[in-house]
Write a structure and sequence with these properties.
Number of domains: 2
Strand order of the largest sheet: 1-4-5-6-7-8-9-10
CATH topology of the largest domain: TIM Barrel
CATH class of the largest domain: Alpha Beta
CATH architecture of the largest domain: Alpha-Beta Barrel
Radius of gyration: 22 Å
Shape: elongated
Length: 385
């Protein structure tokens, strides 16, 4: 399968990177074996594998050849390329795609190199990290666009800016969010902004087991702990491994939070509203239309900047529906399953529905709005196992 085709498959895809060192972080995995890692990443579900061939990253063209000998997965040759000779050498070494960094290329050169990749029968990942570069990539009609969260001059990471650019590019291109992904929630943030894939290097190279780390980043469902009202409970949910934390901003709710509390950037915050929404610092909004009397209705929309990105299929509070899981399993698109989930049944629910996310609130409490930390840990562990 070609590089672009592999990234266009359903669900969030990953380009796993072989990188021995970083100019910003220094040595990451100096003894990295590209052949071994390439085979492991392919087995762990990588859609493609990126191989640094630049000496500044501890790489050489021989690393690409070694990876090619170890796997049939699409390979991205990554470095700083500006001539036909560079691209031809990469293609001959086994690359299925090459990186073209617009910061270093004028439009004429980029156009020429894009055309040359077609002659060679390989793809190109055209990288932008500013709004101007993204506009150039779109004007060049690049089929695969990468948005790098890392400023290549300062090495600073700006995920918020990256997600904004990803959302602009999404729709008619294959979009790759590059750099800055260390957790499932950060990968999900890129996914919800419109990225088809994430490119992950440092997080894998720094992990004790890179193959296991890749599996973790791609694994679903995401785990949400909702109904949080106290910072201590937020911290406990994050420490337990929750991917999303929810704050109910509804007057009638017994779990009403006064505000969206402090949440680290390793997880996503969700503000929950019924009937109407207000401005919120949360990453996402969970919106329940008014159902005419109860605190909230049966189904909610998960919104990112006002755009629907998933559906929450939820049992109304204090009610029971034996067909809830089967109905949820038949739903299309991203589904967050909620309603009566807890440590004792979340595994069965996941097996029956295969949701994108799971959500629990009241079952994890000592009293309304106050979480039992042991139950939170047990629920997250069960959902992620």
């Amino acid at each position: 399968m070609r590089f672009a085709d592999a990234l266009a498959q359903p669900g969030l895809r990953a380009i796993a990177e072989v990188k021995r060192r970083s100019p910003s972080a220094g040595d990451l995995r100096p003894d990295a074996d590209p052949a071994k890692l390439a085979a492991q990443f392919a087995k762990a579900g990588a859609a493609a594998i990126s191989v640094l061939v630049d000496e500044r990253f501890g790489g050489t063209i021989d690393d690409l050849r070694a990876a090619r000998a170890a796997t049939d997965a699409p390979l991205l040759g990554k470095g700083f390329f500006s001539t036909e000779e560079h691209l031809r050498e990469l293609q001959e070494a086994g690359a299925d795609a090459v990186l073209l960094i617009l910061r270093d290329l004028d439009d004429a050169t980029a156009t020429h190199l894009l055309a040359y990749t077609q002659e060679l029968g390989i793809d190109a990942l055209v990288e932008a990290h500013t709004a101007d570069e993204l506009q150039r990539a779109m004007a060049l009609d690049a089929p695969v666009v990468g948005v790098n969260a890392r400023d290549l001059s300062t090495f600073a990471i700006d995920r918020r800016k990256q997600l904004e650019l990803v959302s602009r590019a999404a729709g008619d291109r294959i979009v790759v969010a590059e750099s800055g992904v260390h957790t499932r929630a950060q990968g999900a943030a890129a996914e919800l902004a419109g990225a088809d894939a994430i490119l992950v290097g440092s997080a894998l190279m720094q992990a004790p087991d890179p193959q296991a780390k890749l599996r973790e980043l791609l694994s679903r469902p995401l785990v949400k702990v909702c109904g949080l009202t106290r910072q201590d409970d937020v911290d406990a949910a994050v420490e337990a491994g929750a991917d999303l934390v929810g704050f109910i901003l509804v007057e009638k709710s017994p779990r009403r939070a006064a505000a969206v509390l402090d949440v680290p950037d390793t997880v996503l915050s969700v503000a929950v509203f019924v009937e109407d929404t207000t401005e919120t610092p949360a990453d996402l909004v969970q919106f329940y239309p008014d159902d005419g009397g109860t605190v909230r209705g049966r189904e909610a929309l998960l919104l990112r900047e006002g755009r629907e990105v998933a559906r929450v299929l939820d049992l109304p509070w204090q009610r029971n529906d034996p067909a809830h899981w089967s109905s949820a399993a038949a739903a299309s698109g991203r589904v967050v399953l909620a309603g009566g989930l807890g440590p004792d049944n979340v595994r069965d629910a996941i097996a029956a529905v295969r949701p994108w996310g799971v959500d629990a609130a009241s079952s994890l409490e000592r009293e309304p709005g106050v979480k039992d930390h042991d139950k939170v840990r047990a629920y997250v562990e069960a959902a992620r196992s």
